[in-house]
Fold this sequence. Notes:
The complex is a heterodimer. By secondary structure, chain A is mainly α. Chain A has helices spanning 4-14, 20-65, 82-89, 92-124, 130-144, 147-156, 162-169, 184-194, 197-209, 212-220, 225-253, 257-262, 276-286, 290-318, and strands at residues 68-69, 77-78. Chain B is an alpha+beta fold. Chain B is built from 18 helices and 10 strands. The radius of gyration of chain B is 27 Å and the shape is globular. At the A-B interface, helix 1, helix 2 and helix 13 of A face helix 1, helix 2, helix 4, helix 5 and helix 11 of B.
Amino acid sequence: MNVEAPDQQVSPPRGRPDSESAAADSATARNRPRRREGAAWVFLSPWLLGAAVLTLTPMLVSLYLSFTQYDLFTAPEWVGLDNYVHMFTSDPRYWRSALNTLIYVLVAVPLQLAVALAVALALNSIGRGKGFYRSAFYAPSLLGASMSIALVWRALFNDGGTVDDMLSTFGIDMGGWVNQPGWALLVVALLTIWQFGAPMVIFLAGLQQVPNELYEAAEVDGAGRMRRFLSVTLPMLSPVLFFNLVLQTIQAFQVFTPAFTVSGGRGGPADSTLFYTLYLYDRGFTASHMGYASAMAWVLLVVIGIVTALLFRSSRSWVFYNDKG
Amino acid sequence: MRQRATRDPKPTPAGRVPVLTTAVLLLCGLLAGCGASADGAAGGKIELQFSWWGNADRAEVTNEAVELFERRNPDIEVQTSFSSYNSYIQKLATQAAGGNAPDVMQLDYRQISQYASAGLLLDLDEQSAISTGNVTSAMLRTGQSSGEQYAIPMGRTSQVMVYDSARWQRAGVAEPEYGWTWQDWSRAMRELGEATDRTGATDPGWSEDWFEVWLRGRGKGLYTDSGKLNYDAADLAEFWRTTNELSQQGAVSPARQTTQIDGSAANMPFGRGNALSGFTWDSAVGGFQALIGDSLRLAPLPVGPDGTPGQYFKPSMLIGVSANSPHPEAASKLVDFLINDPRAGEILGVSRGLPVNRTIRENITPTLTGLDKRIAEFQESLDGKLLAPPSAPPQGDLALQTAFQRDYDHVGFELQSPRRTAEQFLTNARSELQR
Lengths: 325, 435
């Protein structure tokens, strides 16, 4: 799009040339970027086609479906705002799922970022075996994307599972964690926190960007370790922190796989891990209320949009960009 | 002006050719990707799609039977595919919604009314290739919707109580036999809970299936023939109160074990060795046999206070033909072959439960061994005693099944009273069934 802008402004005056040669000149001049642009479109076309057919169209269809009642088998039936009204006024489980998700976001995201930052700080000061430790700490996030680790998690924290066995040797007998309404959500959050690899790597990159002279200057001024972290590292790292916060928040709102697997697909016990997306899945694919599920998806999109916008607004007061100052 | 300028270039041929070539190549790639599966007939043969859910063992015998069918009908080629139950159900729904359902498909009891009312299934009464003379009318009725035959049951299964007879005997508790009542069952559970360090059974309060048996024993049922609810909150509250009290007393499994149930034998309190018995379907007994071993025994479920049996013979699965199939005759031929052909019956054995076809069942029963034989004997012992199966459950029941287990968690963890939970379940049930 940026390529086209100068062309538009320039071409009208040049469109009326005085002499043949000028016309030919301007034609080649205009033609060159334009042809390149054409090539760009051609090379973009697989992606564009994918985005239009596989992302944009389904999104618009789901927007339409959110105003209908649709069970997959019979044609969608227009019901106006009914789905949205039902969702907000007479579906207690909807609110339960929204609350669970909110708790999860508020617990998992800050803790995950804190752990990621702490490990990044530790790894940043290591000299020998740096590569090994970085890979070792990053590994969980590679594994975590898969179903299998969630299954392992479930087995670990189950009634009679490994964690249970270990604790019972110390005389703590919990009888399982994932099977008790008070603990299940925390176990799922723990799984997310454990997968701190991606933000950790970004923090590490950020830490290496902090100019050394700032630390030296602070040290000369007599700043201790804590002071240096608070006054140098954190401000310099704030853009990276902000980036991680936005990304992890958006991801946390859409959490699905760990809860689905750990709770056996039901969001149990007693709805304690019924996350928003899990309930959405339940409505859409178990109960065949595709219209209602679509409406839920759109509300989630809007909420994530609002939360992200709020984060961006708040960033003005705490994110420090070095290049501005 | 601008437009003309763009069409009036002096292209350097060398610059344009790669772009065009790339575009053409990309397009070819796309077209090739789409075109591969478009053709329905391979080399003048009729091609049928046949899919089912099940494990590798079932797939092996099914494919063997299909090969025999293809040898007998050289003009028909059958493409088979199978997957696990949950992914099969979802995939089939998506295919059906897109008008691409396979020609011949294995169906669950709970899908019939939904698929039939959406016009996705062929009315099999009009297919002369299919004969159903060897299937009882009570069984055939399970494949009907509004009086039309949309699917044929393939095998039959019944509810069964599996228990560890060695431990029951050691605890000094009398082993169950047909005709024991729910009260007898409760007493046995309490005795087992007291005499051993385990609970008597997996708490049956988690599943609509066992509630149904309890209801039918009292002359009620989950749904009327027209698909309306056939019980009220008081019934459900009483059932849940009974099971929950037993759970509190240590007679059946505690909530934190019951909530772990996900359908697999390995996650049932009985399968895990925490309880001494459990209710299941006789088609799923194999999973328990592997975990419990030779002391596993089968017993009928308890009957109602006046001796009314609650359990029934249910189709373990049905088979139907897509209404969109371009080859309904060939598809019907395959259905008939799978249900009635004696050789196919031998190959398929009990991979889909005991066959509903009487002749085939009698043919293969003597050849059965081990657990299969015991299941066959168990079913035989119930023949003629049970009431007719209920009609196919209405659309929406699938969601209620999961809601049932979810809501019982609230009772089990004492977050809500049975009465209040039952009322909530029914409010939810009415709205699910209405939609």
